[in-house]
Design goal:
The protein is mostly helical. The protein has one domain. The protein is built from seven helices and two strands; from the N terminus they run αββαααααα. Strands 1-2 form a two-stranded antiparallel ribbon. The radius of gyration is 15 Å and the shape is globular. The mean pLDDT is 77.
Length: 108
Amino acid sequence: MALYHFKTFEATGIKKLWIKAGAGATKRYVPLHVMAVRYGTETCSVLPALYHLTGVIIPAVGTKRAALLAKPLNQLSSFGQGLLNTEIEKSVGNAEEYFTKKDLMQNV
């Protein structure tokens, strides 16, 4: 979620932010400021939906990376933003369409 909020951090004067990720021998520090630039504001804006739907937090490797490479903007940009049943059904349908995309399944 820190990557999603990086623009807010920047607005308060934080220019660089590193987060500890991984477990055991694969622990490392991930430069969120670099990732925010790499992914861009639009992609970062759909990260909460991506996190909740995939159960992952750091979009760096494995299925997390595959989920980002499958370009989630179109299907996930409105996920969880509507309260009406029709809006919820559309969001769920879009998420289902996203997670069954051929390029997402090839990258997992």
